[in-house]
Amino acid sequence: MTNRTIGIIGGGQLGRMLAMAAARLNYRTIILEPQADSPAAQVANAQITAAYDDPEALAELAKLCDVVTYEFENVPVTAVERLAASVPVYPPAKALEVAQDRVTEKRFLNASGIETARFHAIDSQSDLEAALADFGGEGVLKTRRFGYDGKGQKVYRKGDTAEGGYAALGSVPLILESFVPFVREVSIIAARGADGEVRAYDPTENVHRNGILHTSTLPAAIPAQTANAAREAATRLLNGLDYVGVVGMEFFVLADGGLIANEIAPRVHNSGHWTEAACVVSQFEQHIRAVAGLPLGDPSRHSDCVMTNLIGGDIDSVPAWLARSNVLVHLYGKTEARPGRKMGHVTEIMSIKA
Amino acid sequence: MTNRTIGIIGGGQLGRMLAMAAARLNYRTIILEPQADSPAAQVANAQITAAYDDPEALAELAKLCDVVTYEFENVPVTAVERLAASVPVYPPAKALEVAQDRVTEKRFLNASGIETARFHAIDSQSDLEAALADFGGEGVLKTRRFGYDGKGQKVYRKGDTAEGGYAALGSVPLILESFVPFVREVSIIAARGADGEVRAYDPTENVHRNGILHTSTLPAAIPAQTANAAREAATRLLNGLDYVGVVGMEFFVLADGGLIANEIAPRVHNSGHWTEAACVVSQFEQHIRAVAGLPLGDPSRHSDCVMTNLIGGDIDSVPAWLARSNVLVHLYGKTEARPGRKMGHVTEIMSIKA
Question: ipTM score here?
């Protein structure tokens, strides 16, 4: 058991939790992140403070690390490709490419036999008008790239005017997605090892507020068949990308139990934070195991649970959470509680599975 | 929720696990430790690399921290007293004083109504001979101070010669303890909050090898009455010391279920490592909660489990442990696997409590 070094691009809370999981398995971690004293760097062995695409910083990271991973999907693909020439980088660049563009993503999912909402690529105002006409005047207009937590979106209802819509989102490449008549939202966290083995945690039922994940509940109120379909979709996706690491995959659930894939995140995912409280091996350790070439851990769940995000001023509720039994409180070391900023999360263990 | 700073004296694995628990609750940590790049410093915000009793280093630690704690019981009491003049230090210096000297410890336990082995303080060869005569020629001779993991001990059986015994252990203050006819060894991890509340985890049954903890098993094979007696003893001890933080307390169990206190450790304890796998709030978080003035967490256990230490070359068994289900592997970031050195531990979740 040598003490190898894992590079992590991105210094946020996901990098922080990855760094702690890596430490428990004897890996050293180096964070690449422009913000000094980042949440991840506070618990990592070292931080290279530089832009994610800084060529010298990337060369240094490659030199110091045995393998490199990332904690967010907007890492420049060129940076990952540059790194991958001299050090293994997981998940593969292809996964980033697919996840960074909503049109590419949906096309890849469809080609993998995974159903998504209907969509049109929008590159002009006239594209938008034609697409809205095709969807009966309804749909969600989103930027193709760099959207997250509901940012860069506009909803069209019947009767809304399309006028100025393309310019309002910045005259950048967009996508119009048709509405999906979903009854709930679920996600699945799955991992693929270097040997091609795939393991998935139980699907969670997610509730969003203001476009940001609010709660993840286990078990999700879905039939076993729907849960199995989510596992199968994740397996197809991971194998199709020759993926190594953890992926988060979000779905809409239809009234008949059918699944519509919404989006994928080629990284550990907010809706998998409950795994640290209710499983022996968390999604963070699972990701480290995968990228380090270790066998994947057992994703079994020992308890039912509910994870709640602490966003912005929610941090003030921490004393109340700490006073409750059966709640794991996990904070991210951020000093400033800006509105919409993820400050921490809590997982309540609801019951013990028989 | 401000991001306050906790100082930790000692940079070993206990400090490492405390630092990670502190990070999850938004505390920054600074380690005082003479060894550079210590296990704790790898996951802490900063390390002051200096001797534990270095006056300048202690002054710096006091200046930078809101509260200071320690991860081992051989911290110089003078250092803690010096610190305590300018920053709160928990557990209190009195606990260190009691734990650092086996005679003081037993006298304090006895005065608190907690039974121990019979003992004699030994300050000369003639003391040793008189004490052995009193115990029928049998007993365990130990140094009063700075013993751990079975080091600095000599066992006398009927017929052994006492000659040279005092000199053989260095002509330092010693203790002769009478044999206890125990059927098993248990320990209890308990915490006392700043408000005086006491909470205890379930007692564990411990097996030692070569004087070092080998396994801790939950539940311990003891009657409820014995478990309650362990909780009561811990509560008396903690209240008697006006303690704040986690304590580890080891007992011998007699055939009739009676308890004989063996020793106390004024810190998180190896026999409490299982709590990170089988409880929502681990002993490390519990200690951080106590010293930071937060409410104590629920010490309930959701699963039966067995913790096994990885000592020295046991580190080679890690790949096999990683390949098993329901095992949490936790390694300490030490590069050199010397014989007798604690390299990590594993906790197997054996069953789910109904």
Answer: 0.93
